[in-house]
Inverse folding.
């Protein structure tokens, strides 16, 4: 990897999308990043989103998918999870730029007199601040990839498009590569691809002053070459610069599709060298992901947000990666926490209870934790999954009405096994105020947790405001659980385990945020191994 950092100008790749949202900009951008990283470059990524939200902390996960958390504690959308999985790097607060946050910063500056009475406008003030955020996010990287959220033509995204157009004036057009990902629909009745929507999207982009260097056509099936050539002629770009990326079984095979498409030649020209990317680790993972093994493990995900498969994206991807490296097929079964009964769990090889908020479905999660503890079924509890495990153990240990302050239990009841952390009261409905991001933990030497990690000092990401009340530890231990890790000062319970069980691990953290397809998290690896 090159270490010349700022001796050489950082190069920028801007990825926009046309026709409709969800076309695959993020995966396409991350795949290009994975290829460039495999060539030895330091690659970073950033999402610019036109939402007027300040962050993703208060967005409904059923509508928007999971809320991802960066290492330094910013709540973002799930695209940053894709970036981390594909590039195996840690995103930061600079990796996400939302319109709401930009407007808030501008208004706060204006209210404090920072503009000295001048008129504040979208151009240049909003666009300049976006460019500043891009430069900050790209520090010390060779190549910085920026995904512009939304669809070309959306009113709310125009300022971001103008910002990246102007950015070429700042760093030089030769240091900017513009990529447009457009959807080309297949019409069943006439049995043909229709390029008109893509043509209109590229016309809009051209009208905003950007002629793309690469156009990726997204299709549900492979499209004939003449489709790309037709779009190239309309867009006024080289025919080799329009490539087809059809739907495939696994997103982790997209880098190979990008390589086969001919994009590598354009990327080589952009970065100025033709070194072949080392994709051997990706190839090994792809072989495992696509192989049918003789053994299958059935894992139940006991969840409350079941209307959208993206709500637990990092959890499901961590399980899939762990299954692949364990060389087993994964039969992932979604179990509705509001309706779960013991018979729904009987044919499972393992149970995962992920994070969540509020009382809805929590008794079902407690039931799942208790079932796993009593029947010695491998259990992995994440955040709320640890809290319900402690509640279940406390009930088994003699506190019949053990509960959590979060679920409406009164402090006077004296049974709040889970209570709100110091300094968090009154912030329950406020975004960005939880215990967020990376925090260290000290594992008990000799514990199963420490053996799984192979260390006693670990760092995991968090997103919570409730915590285990340690005055109830005797009852929790009587119910079968033991603390296996705490915060360095010992004040917060970070990990619990069930000694003598095949696998019962729960953590207040979100280890799924740090699991990668090429480097799966040890808790997930060991969980699948024990399910086997």
């Amino acid at each position: 990897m090159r270490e010349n950092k700022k001796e050489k100008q950082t190069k920028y790749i801007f990825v926009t999308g046309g026709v409709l949202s969800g076309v695959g900009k993020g995966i396409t951008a991350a795949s290009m990043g994975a290829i460039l990283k495999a060539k030895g470059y330091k690659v970073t990524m950033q999402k610019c989103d036109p939402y007027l939200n300040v962050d993703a902390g208060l967005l409904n996960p059923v509508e928007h998918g999971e809320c991802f958390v960066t290492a330094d504690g910013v709540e973002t959308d799930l695209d940053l999870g894709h970036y981390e999985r594909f590039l195996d790097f840690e995103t930061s607060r600079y990796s996400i730029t939302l319109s709401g946050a930009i407007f808030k910063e501008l208004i706060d500056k204006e209210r404090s007199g920072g503009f000295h009475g001048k008129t504040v406008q979208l151009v240049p003030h909003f666009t300049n601040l976006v460019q500043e955020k891009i430069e900050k996010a790209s520090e010390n990287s060779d190549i910085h990839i920026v995904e512009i959220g939304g669809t070309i033509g959306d009113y709310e995204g125009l300022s971001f498009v103008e910002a990246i157009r102007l950015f070429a004036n700042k760093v030089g057009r030769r240091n900017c590569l513009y990529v447009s990902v457009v959807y080309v629909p297949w019409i069943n009745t006439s049995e043909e691809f229709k390029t008109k929507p893509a043509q209109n999207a590229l016309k809009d982009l051209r009208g905003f002053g950007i002629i793309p260097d690469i156009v990726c056509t997204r299709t549900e099936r492979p499209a004939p070459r003449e489709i790309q050539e037709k779009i190239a002629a309309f867009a006024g770009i080289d025919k080799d610069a329009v490539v087809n990326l059809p739907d495939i079984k696994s997103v982790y095979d997209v880098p190979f599709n990008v390589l086969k498409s001919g994009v590598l030649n354009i990327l080589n020209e952009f970065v100025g060298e033709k070194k072949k990317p080392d994709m051997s680790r990706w190839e090994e993972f792809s072989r495992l992901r696509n192989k049918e093994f003789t053994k299958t493990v059935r894992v139940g995900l006991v969840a409350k947000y079941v209307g959208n498969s993206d709500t637990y994206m990092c959890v499901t991807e961590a399980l899939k990666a762990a299954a692949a490296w364990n060389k087993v097929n994964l039969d992932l079964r979604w179990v509705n926490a509001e309706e779960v009964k013991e018979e729904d769990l009987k044919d499972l090889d393992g149970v995962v209870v992920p994070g969540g908020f509020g009382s809805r479905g929590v008794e079902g999660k407690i039931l799942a934790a208790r079932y796993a503890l009593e029947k010695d079924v491998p259990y992995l509890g994440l955040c709320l999954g640890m809290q319900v495990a402690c509640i279940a153990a406390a009930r088994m240990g003699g506190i019949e009405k053990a509960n959590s302050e979060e679920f409406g239990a009164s402090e006077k009841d004296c049974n709040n096994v889970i209570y709100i952390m110091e300094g968090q009261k009154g912030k329950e409905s406020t975004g960005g105020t939880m215990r967020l991001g990376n925090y260290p933990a000290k594992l008990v030497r000799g514990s199963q947790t420490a053996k799984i990690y192979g260390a006693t000092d670990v760092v995991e990401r968090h997103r919570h405001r409730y915590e285990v009340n340690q005055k109830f530890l005797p009852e929790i231990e009587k119910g079968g659980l033991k603390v296996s890790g705490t915060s360095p000062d010992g004040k917060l319970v970070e990990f619990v385990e069930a000694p003598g069980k095949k696998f019962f691990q729960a953590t207040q953290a979100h280890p799924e945020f740090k699991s990668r397809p090429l480097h799966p998290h040890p808790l997930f690896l060991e969980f699948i191994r024990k399910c086997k």
Notes: The chain has 17 helices and 23 strands. The longest strand covers residues 435-443. Residues 1-6 have pLDDT under 50 and may be disordered. The first helix runs from residue 25 to 38.
